[in-house]
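User: Could you check the structure of this?
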Amino acid sequence: MTDYSTTLSYQVLGCAMNVYQHFGPGLLESVYQQALMIELDNAGLLAEQEVPIKIEYLGQDLGLAFRLDILVENCMILELKSVSQLEKVHFKQLMTYLKLTDKPIGYLINFNTENFSIGHSIHKIINYSYGKEIPTWLG
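Assistant: Sure, the predicted structure tokens are below.
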């Protein structure tokens, strides 16, 4: 049985919860992103923000069209929102990012909510096109 308290997901979501508890809803996405970067760094996690996604078509680079909000430990994408309601397009956006970057897992996190919880404002998205087995330590 997996001890979920040691998974990367558990650590990352704990960091997101700390940010939400400090600020609550109502701020710009960029504020939550900067604060979350501080939390991830304090947790000893490698995180990069605004990571460019290279997109090619028929072997030709289309240029920078998209950027990941946060990439954690080079394997988990965090797509942050501060919107009144998540829409289907937000889920599709993260799934597309996962496929384009060949990353196994991502979280769609909406900070503009009164109910900051898994399944309501925090959604785990798994890349079923990922070419390898997803490690259990990801969570």
